[in-house]
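Bench notes, afternoon.
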Amino acid sequence: MKLGRRKEEPVKAVKLPDRYDTVTLTTPRGERFPARVVEREDETLRVAVLVPMKALNGKELKGTVLEYSNHRGRTRLRGEVRIEDPGQPDLLCVEGPHHAQVLQEREYVRIKSARPVIVYAGGDRLQMRSYTVDLSGGGFLLAGPDTLKVGEEVKFQLTIEQSAAPLTGKGRVVRTDAKGRRAVEFEGISDFDRRRLVRFIFDCQRAERARGLIDGES
């Protein structure tokens, strides 16, 4: 249940992400690397990649874009991307964003719901049981564990109904909140399981509305 249709809108000016914000670097080959803003100036960003990566060559640097979320949706910036110190290829400088696109994609509806989930990390070597704090069609916020790192890929089994098979798929830890809880964004989930999840969220909203816990506009 995604609200609105996705379209791209060129913009002349855009608010840059703030220091410590989590962003994503996407190379011309489609590789995506989670990163964090470590310094922000008027027209310059310095970002540190949070996972191991090889040094990008000139062509890859020229075509790399930076993506992040703001109040308008998912925003994509282009600028001059360069490595300032060859000894630190994971520290990139993005100068003078000269083109930006807002991917006008409104967020999935999100609800607070504690549902059991099994998370597999470390190439399936680690199995951890936890529960969700909230849920949406695009991912969930985990109560724990605090050993998961931003950028780490995980597999999951999410139980939304005890009488039905769990939802399964792959995700990536994209951020932590002030309480140290991990947000997982779906990267691989079947359309059938996503529809089941969206239907569950809709049913929860309808039940809360019937009990007067949320208004009819929510």
